[in-house]
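Write out the 3D structure for:
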Amino acid sequence: MMRIRPAKQEDTGFILSSWFDSFRSASALCATLKRHSFETDAGRVYWMFMKDLVRRWAAEPDARTMVACDPEAEDTLVGFAAASGQQLHYVYIRDGFRRSGHARALVESMGPLVRYSMQTEQGERRLKPRERGWIFTPRFTL
């Protein structure tokens, strides 16, 4: 069983790189970026844009991020969820730890949610936001 805890400053690198890379690979909005590494012009623009969006979100008073970690080694992270208010922004679980209830536990740790701001095929299929009654309200778009 994983432990769910609030993110710490030292978790930032994992959270940002996982969020940016997985959204770039999984989002229909970012389909053209799938072919670009972060070393290309398109990749660098995407990285700068996403970094700015996440920085602005993180500065909001109700922004919060929870991580799933090994209970005996808290620096071994397997995933995270980011939200503000009642809006879920992103959930990420590492390969090899998916389909084990970690995403669901992270989402539940966020309290009541009614909106979500980012869409991926996996997120739609596994979290079933529409069945939960959540409303898609894009916030991070390119």
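Helices lie at 12-26, 41-58, 102-109, 121-127.
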